[in-house]
Structure prediction request, 465 residues.
Amino acid sequence: MFRWILNKLKGRPDVTQAGTAPGRVSIDLTFEELHRNYDIRTSEFKGLSLSSIRQEARLAHWIGASDYSGFIRERSLRFIIDHFQEGDEERIMLRLSDWVPQISSIASDWIIANFNQLPLSAIYANQRIILYLSRKARVVTKPAYKVIQRDVLERVSHLDEECFFKFDLAFRKYLYKLSMNGDQKLRPWMMSDSDPRNRLLLLNLIGECDRLTDTEVAAFESDRSALVRRRYLYYLLSQGKMASEDFLWSMALHKSKGLRDLGRYYLEKEYQRDVYAKYAGLSGESFYYIADYERASDLDVFVRGVREGCKRTRMLCLQAIVNLEPKRILELSIHDLLKASGSEKFIVYQVLPDLLTLEELRSYREDIESASPSGCEHYMNMIGRKSFWAFVCDGLDYLIKDTSESSVRSLVFDTIQRKNSIFEQLSSELEFRIQSKLEELENSSKGEYSKWIEHVRFILKNALS
Prediction:
């Protein structure tokens, strides 16, 4: 039997993994390679090139257990069970999801009889397989899968915290769900999980008749994650409860503006607290939280915050200035703002065309272009907001230079090509400059842009008629 399987596997030149592209990949397959590569280990093999196998029979049947042929899968599965070694449980568990009932039944019988005898290391090693099985509708109702669930939950319930958190994040989430639907022995560890999504599971899974313990409440109120804090507040509101004043103050003073907005709203509504006065009495960067209120009387403070504050403060104050009186941005160094973080630059890109004349905007061309890898595109978009004909004129400069910025060329081509109607008057001076650049581009491009140039000349003619 083994020789027949091995010969069948050797008889084909390549190995193809299920779900991959038609191209085949030839590899020297060993147990080390199988254990290192989860995708190969769980693949469906249709052909294999074996150049060096030390444990030929066992390895061949490991591969055969995932063969496309149900006959080979069954023979290999029986061989693995009859000659079981530690680690072989993975092959057997994988076949629990087999679409051939006879094969899945063989795996099921073995799991029911032997899974509880596996060492704890087998649970650590097969986390992904167990998660894989938990997503299979035809598996989760089987008695063998219920055995896996009960045994795994029983074992981890007796682990210490250090050993428990050696499990992967996704597997811990799986265990928490099992526990919350059962004896809830893992519940005390949920708030100690390093991942905020796992900590939030407690709020998602807690029953209607259950309640948070004092320890859990304290943990939620002191949690540093904005995601957890927000979700905890919504949980309290859904229960018809109001968060404590201390918790709302901690939100109102959080670095996340979204949390500050929530904290402020409920402090002022439920506790009638003057949060603005609290902000105004603070020192350091927290003082600039007054920008959340966007009061015109604080504009001088906001300008100072942009000049002197940290990145978060600059962004907060800059947004307040834009919403209140955008012209005050001109009191700042545009050059420095264009060299700032992406968010600050984005705000500047949005307001500069409305604050500057066309020539003033062009004076910042070098700063804008050098501010980011897509600076040339930002510059052209800003020019386009000021004047379509100026966009055409400056766009021709990029094309004449034959810049490597292909994205800029595409922007110029597409914008002009899609322009349906033009209501901007074209001066004779600008028309002459555009015509001169079109002629220069036509001579230098050797016909590459001929159709596009013809289109531009057509819209020029219509604009002058």
Summary: The CA atoms of residues 160 and 189 lie 10 Å apart.
